[in-house]
Amino acid sequence: MGRTLVQKIIARASGRETITPGDIVTCNVDLALILDSGGPRKIWPRLKELGTGVWDKDKVIVVADHFVPAADPQSAAILKLTRDFVKAFDITHFYDMEGICHVILAENGHLQPGMFCCGGDSHSTMGGAFGCYMAGFGAIEMTGVVITGDIWTVVPDTIRINWSGAFGRGTVAKDVMLFLARELGMENAFKVVEYGGETVRNMPMLERMVLTNMAAELGAETGLIEPDELTLDMIRTGGTEPAPNALDWKSDADADYVAIHEFDAGTLTPQVAAPHKPSNSGPAEDFEREKITVDQAYIGACVGAKLTDLHMVASVLKGKKVAAGTRLLVAPSSKKIMSDAAADGTLSIITEAGAILLPSGCGACAGLGAGILAEGEVCISSTNRNFQGRMGSNDAAVYLGSPYTVAAAAVAGHIVDPRDML
Amino acid sequence: MSTVQGKAWVFGDEINSDVMAPGIYFKESNEIMARHCLEAVDPDFAPNVLPGDIVIGGRNFGIGSAREQAALSFRHLRVGAILAKSFARIFYRNALNFGVPALIFPEASDVKAGDILSVNAVSGRVENLTRNKSYVVDAIPRHLMDMIQAGGLMPHLKNRIQKKGQI
Prior knowledge:
The structure holds 2 protein chains of 2 kinds.
Chain A: H1 5-14, E1 24-28, E2 31-35, H2 40-50, E3 60-64, H3 73-88, E4 94-96, H4 101-107, E5 116-119, E6 133-136, H5 139-148, E7 150-154, E8 157-164, H6 173-184, E9 191-196, H7 198-201, H8 205-213, E10 222-225, H9 229-237, E11 259-264, E12 271-273, E13 281-283, H10 284-289, E14 296-299, H11 301-304, H12 307-317, E15 327-330, H13 335-343, H14 346-352, E16 356-357, E17 378-381, E18 397-400, H15 403-412
Parallel strand pairs in A: 2-3, 2-5, 3-4, 5-6, 8-9, 8-11, 9-10, 14-15, 14-17, 15-16, 17-18
Antiparallel strand pairs in A: 1-7, 12-13
Chain B: E1 4-10, H1 17-20, H2 30-35, H3 45-48, E2 54-57, H4 69-76, E3 81-84, H5 89-97, E4 102-104, E5 116-120, E6 125-128, E7 133-136, H6 142-150, H7 153-164
Parallel strand pairs in B: 1-2, 2-3, 3-4
Antiparallel strand pairs in B: 1-5, 5-6, 6-7
Helix pairs in contact in B: 4-5
């Protein structure tokens, strides 16, 4: 039996010739991502307690994205501590208010096929779009990684998900993931999902990153996509020359998958997830019949406010206005995306429609920044999770949809199938 | 690690880490955070849970965010053990790293709120003293037992640093 991509990566990172799913191995870490929220503020006191420092100042990447820009004294103190940590340990790569960490790594050429990476955030899975292992861990565990440069893992089983055919109008990667959360459930712990097939091959990198980001919503250890020329192009755009053997990081033709699923993109339609979980999803047209009025439409987070997402939003909003009684908030995933969207005219379409532009950061998605919800309010959001209380009040209702679906709801004032507006 | 005994607090399937550690309290101390643990699901839990009490979960307990406060809050509340039908990966790792015993307990549905349970994480023996039933569950994985018995990842790292002089 051949090996899957993740099994090859773990074999390399653990220095083993042969590994079998279920084996417990210790891997050397190639990159450790820590953030303002669960990074220095949690890790630095522990380093002090242990009287030790960071294992490799080039491999520990620090991003300030959760509490940016500071809106209160506590946030300001957390950000200052983050900056002080970077100085104290002479961290090479620090991104301060440049955007959301998972997008930052992708934009700056930090991820390469075959790498073994750990991130202090559950959506670290997004990095798997580059053909590397990148999974999320808690701050306590990232403390260990930052000190030792290694971590244990159980060699996971791999689920292969193949998509064939072309998407219909207004249907995108986000709809794939809301569909898969329902279809495969949210309980795939200690398994890896590997996405492939012609539909995935035809997706731009920023759309592939939606698939791996929301592997977290499937409860998977991570998501992976085998690298191709598009992957290498994005690495080069980020300023890094890919390794000569980068495209060798693929699953074997006879790889031992624990399950293989085949889906047809041509039959998928825009999807919406109802409160309070991503798997609580169904076709947007069914939700349209329920006439669900929305107080807020939110375009944001690592998954849902990349340049491709803002283009989707603009294609819906062009020449239209946000409905009276509905507010549309847009927080681009990074400063670079904000700047690119300003340069190509996307932002002016969005603001002319009446949207409010917010800073790049995790913001309201995690209930931290501007745009949180009051009791009884209804929001439709391009983010990845809608757990109770996540975006503010425990008594708010959050629906999830693609950027098309969120923008269409902002114009209609209630949840609609976006295809009628394209 | 000795046997713990306490009252059962019973929760359903897919209790996520956002409700264990709500984001709106993220900037607060761990102690304050713990006071809001699970308040959206059961507002009586955090104010009334006693040291040694046992948390019972359904499937996929702790799904969602990597936030360590989700697991750390149970330690602050001095929960004796968490038994669930299954655990989400990051939550499971966080709980063990904080020295909170997390055990997979397929028969979680047998337990009713308020039952008195006794749990030994080393032997995997679970007793429901109220219903006079006993179970043997899979104990903590062997490779993690050293760490758990040391009290979690921090004491374990301390031992590792002392042993090697450096990492």
